[in-house]
């Protein structure tokens, strides 16, 4: 049985996706429509937003109110934070991140996109592909979202024109060729009226592909998990103080990628010590085989000095152990980067002090141009070089998200100031 075949339904039924687009493209309305038409909202919620809609002098139900939860958002009619919503159908469970459309909230989209399997980029059919559409496509490419849906919304305002839809698809595809985007699907829709969201409607008969919900329910995400490279960051060393288990020593954590079997040869990094897996322990008991992203306790045949922050990997496929690396960095803090300061890096379960020793360039996310800068400000994205005091066990982010990503922390305030994606390839 292959590793993919051995993944349980519980591990694959959850789909995380984000919605992004320019202001007033209809992101919140789309999510509201998904929740409403899939019967995923409670009667009291529906009653509340119906009353709010009436108070505003509007007819019907403003479904965007289901996601615009912050008071500031309701006053301005925009989304300024990442709003998470949950719903389920008989086929799959979903976590939605409704991300901001304004340029100054780029960091919010990067946060929402960091764990997503799929991104929906909304485009207003009247306005076509805008600068913000390109920005969000670039960010989706940057964080390595495997699947992209281009939802051409508000088709009702262009008389459901196939010509308009085809032109927008062509424009977006031309830009996407410059990015690392492969699995792109295009859907015409009207979130306001529900066409091609959950139900097909009767206005887009010329479009024969599946509806948005049908796509979300059936798109394959099994291959989104790296099943080739076993990576197990140690979170905790388990030493039970009981008479029965007085000599038990297990290493607890989550398998971030790959799979492991009892008897497999493993190497402990950064020490380089080697052994074999003796036992794989779970809450339910002992098992012979475990696959990412399962949490387990491992024991080894040899008594080794292993502690939190170490990484267990299969001996035949090891990550790079290094104190220097390059990364694409998204600056999240309102305090600019200080190149003279040391910061903390949290990489898997390991913490290390680090300095940025150079800024190669900042990316203009509107044009993809590379700009020379001497500091980074909030929402800036740049390629930088790092030096760390303790070695990190890294993979290229494009190959392994778990061991290719990290956050930067201000040691004084304990605030997260940046998120990074490691690049082990040459610039």
From TrEMBL:
Keywords from the named record: ATP-binding, GTP-binding, Nucleotide-binding, Nucleotidyltransferase, Transferase
Binding positions (GTP): 21-28, 98-102, 153-156
Record pathway: Sulfur metabolism; hydrogen sulfide biosynthesis; sulfite from sulfate: step 1/3
Enzyme class: transferase
Gene Ontology biological-process annotations: hydrogen sulfide biosynthetic process; sulfate assimilation
InterPro entries: CysN_GTP-bd, CysN_II, CysN_NoDQ_III, G_TR_CS, GTP-eEF1A_C, P-loop_NTPase, Small_GTP-bd, SO4_adenylTrfase_lsu
One Pfam family matching this protein: GTP_EFTU
Subunit structure and binding partners: Heterodimer composed of CysD, the smaller subunit, and CysN.
Keyword GTP-binding: yes
Protein name, as recorded: Sulfate adenylyltransferase subunit 1
The Tr-type G domain, residue ranges: 12-223
One example GO MF annotation: GTP binding
Biological role stated in the UniProt entry: With CysD forms the ATP sulfurylase (ATPS) that catalyzes the adenylation of sulfate producing adenosine 5'-phosphosulfate (APS) and diphosphate, the first enzymatic step in sulfur assimilation pathway. APS synthesis involves the formation of a high-energy phosphoric-sulfuric acid anhydride bond driven by GTP hydrolysis by CysN coupled to ATP hydrolysis by CysD.
């Amino acid at each position: 049985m292959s590793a993919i075949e051995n993944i349980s339904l519980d591990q694959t039924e959850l789909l995380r996706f984000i919605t992004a687009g320019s202001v007033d493209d209809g992101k919140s309305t789309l999510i509201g429509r998904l929740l409403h038409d899939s019967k995923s909202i409670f009667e009291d919620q529906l009653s509340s937003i119906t009353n709010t809609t009436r108070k505003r002098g509007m007819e019907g139900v403003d479904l965007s109110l289901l996601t615009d939860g912050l008071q500031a958002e309701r006053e301005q009619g925009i989304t300024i934070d990442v709003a998470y919503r949950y719903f389920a159908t008989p086929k799959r469970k979903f976590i939605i991140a409704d991300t901001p459309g304004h340029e100054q909230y780029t960091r919010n989209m990067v946060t929402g996109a960091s764990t997503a399997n799929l991104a929906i980029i909304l485009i207003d059919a009247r306005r076509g592909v805008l600068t913000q559409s390109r920005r969000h496509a670039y960010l989706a490419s940057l964080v390595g979202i495997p699947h992209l849906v281009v939802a051409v919304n508000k088709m009702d305002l262009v008389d459901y024109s196939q010509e308009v839809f085809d032109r927008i698809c062509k424009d977006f595809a031309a830009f996407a060729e410059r990015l690392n985007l492969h699995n792109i699907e295009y859907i015409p829709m009207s979130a306001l009226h529900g066409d091609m969201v959950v139900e097909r409607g009767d206005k887009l008969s010329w479009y024969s592909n599946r509806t948005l919900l049908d796509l979300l329910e059936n798109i394959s995400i099994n291959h989104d998990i790296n099943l080739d490279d076993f990576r197990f960051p140690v979170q905790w060393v388990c030493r039970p103080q009981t008479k029965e288990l007085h000599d038990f020593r297990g290493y607890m954590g989550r398998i971030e990628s790959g799979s492991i079997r009892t008897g497999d040869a493993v190497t402990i990094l950064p020490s380089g010590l080697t052994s074999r897996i003796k036992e794989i322990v779970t809450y339910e008991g002992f098992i012979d085989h475990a696959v990412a992203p399962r949490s387990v306790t491992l024991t080894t045949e040899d008594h080794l000095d292993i502690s939190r922050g170490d990484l267990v990997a299969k001996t035949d496929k090891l990550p790079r152990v290094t104190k220097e690396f390059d990364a694409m960095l998204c600056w999240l803090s309102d305090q600019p980067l200080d190149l003279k300061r040391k910061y903390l890096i949290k990489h898997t379960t390991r913490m290390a002090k680090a300095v940025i020793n150079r800024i190669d360039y900042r990316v203009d996310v509107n044009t993809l141009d590379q700009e020379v800068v001497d500091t980074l400000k909030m929402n800036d994205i740049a390629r930088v070089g790092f030096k760390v005091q303790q070695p990190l066990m890294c993979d290229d982010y494009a190959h392994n998200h778990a061991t290719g990503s990290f956050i930067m922390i201000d040691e004084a305030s304990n605030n997260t100031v940046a998120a990074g994606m490691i690049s082990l390839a040459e610039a």
